[in-house]
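Blackboard transcription, Thursday session:
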Amino acid sequence: MASTPPELSITRRKARTGERLIVNALFVCAVLSVAVTVGIIAVLLVDTVEFFRESSLFEFLTGTVWAPGQGAGVDGLYGVWPLINGTLMIGVGSIVVGLPLGVLTAIYLSEYASPRVRRVLKPTLEILAGIPTVVVGFFALQFITPDLLRPIFGADRVFIFNAAAGSIAVGLMILPIIASISEDAMRAVPSSLREAAFGLGSTKRQVSLRVVVPAALSGIAASVILAFSRAVGETMAVTIAAGNSPKMTLNYFESIQTLTASIAQTVNGEVAAGTVRYNALFALGMTLFLMTLAMNLISARIVRRYRQVYS
Amino acid sequence: MTAATDALAPSTLRRGASRTGARIALDIVFSVVLFVGTIVGVLALVTLIWTILDNGWERLVADPAAFLTSYVSRFPARAGLKAALVGSAYLMVLTALFCFPVGVGAAVYLEEFAPRNRVTNFVEANIANLAGVPSVVYGLLGLGIFVRFLQMGPSLLAGALTLAVMSLPVIIVAAREAIRAVPQSIRLGAYALGATKWQTVRRQVLPAALPGTMTGTILALSRAIGETAPLLVIGLPIVIFSLPNDLRDPVSALPLLIFDWTSRPQPAFAAAAAAASIVLLALLLAMNAVAIFLRNRYTIRW
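(Written on the board underneath:)
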């Protein structure tokens, strides 16, 4: 909030030029963040346009084969759907893992845990959120696939690189996001509502499930959309654990490729600038940017529109 | 539960004991489910750390000095972290230098000077959206603008600028919260003594908000230093046998090296990747400890 000094001076003083310069400099700092957005859109747009000059937009939007060629001409297939398919598999899979765990954690922290347990659990979740994604990828490749998925589902069914391991890894990464935003929403529910329910003879479980969770539903929904957006934008864990084979499958034990992993694979392979494949990077980046932007906006809107106002 | 609890429950007066018993049983089941659901996250973290230690500890303690001071190698037993560790340190310092002043400046403007108008609302919405942009997209931004358009190449400067741009929204949000926590009475007191608006901000608000801002900045930096994707996209090298002397020199980074070693088929490289992960986690832990120390030691409770 901007606070204005009380204007009590009787004689009007000239505004100090030095002070005005400083305010202008601060304004430039704030506007720089807008320049970043403009920069992102410009960079993505320029090479995306370049890409579609040589490759067909129709094929990109409808094609079900992603098989980029290496040369300068259009000698590959650039249908984005296998990558969208892989991205959505990871997004949905990680929500399946992260949503129940996150919401259970949030209810526990908000309604059940003693202050002492909270003081231990909250930083633990923060540490989980702070593990670098490349390390989580290593964990998925070295533990989740060989020591968790393969013993349960059989080594012959589970590929070394598979969507399930990627989903579990990303699910663990979004768990703290869902837990902390949902918990904030639950703690914002006024205790008078809880007390009224207790007064009517409800048990703690009934208060949690029938009063607190419904009242916090918009916050939980917002956290899930935000988490989905994070999962879609996650790069390293899925590159390492879920593989690099773009395909139209729904089998979680197979290797897939996400939009982000495809970008990582292309830049890791030292593709020459100016080739179609290189420009395809930016078309993928644009797709990713638009997907996450839409979800972030929806999440922000849900929070704004459905925020229960208790007085 | 027991008959005694049943008898005490008021609803037994009319509804009978069985229903109350079922309710209580369900309550117990529910609290167990909650506890188990919460513990899974904690167990996952413990398992992750145990997996890293189990895979990498031997490699790390076999000859820690050689591991930290050797360059990379085709032979996993001889490969070391030197270039990556130094590169990450340089990147961290430069990133902080770039994004701290701009982030705090933007936060001060938005909290203290910005008029309530459309431009301000737009800037605020924009910052919120930037915080949700995937890191790999920031990499594409760095590749398009710093590496190619400004012709910095895959250099220390381009890497630090990319990480700085990525960290900016996080630092702005943290600094705004710290500034907002300074009570209005401090500002009014300064005005009453004749201070101008900027003098008030400079000498009262900013010093009071500094611990919170520093904490937020360190946390943002610790996230930036663990990032792989943007550095991979702008093309920072992994195999490099020199330390940077200049902003335009190429550098490597710890997460890049971990990614490279993780992708190699030889088990000995997996051990090296785990050992490097231990070093990275220790670094992040140290940064977080400093942040928590600053928060507890210097934050003023009003």
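Lecturer's comment: Chain B has a mean pLDDT of 90.
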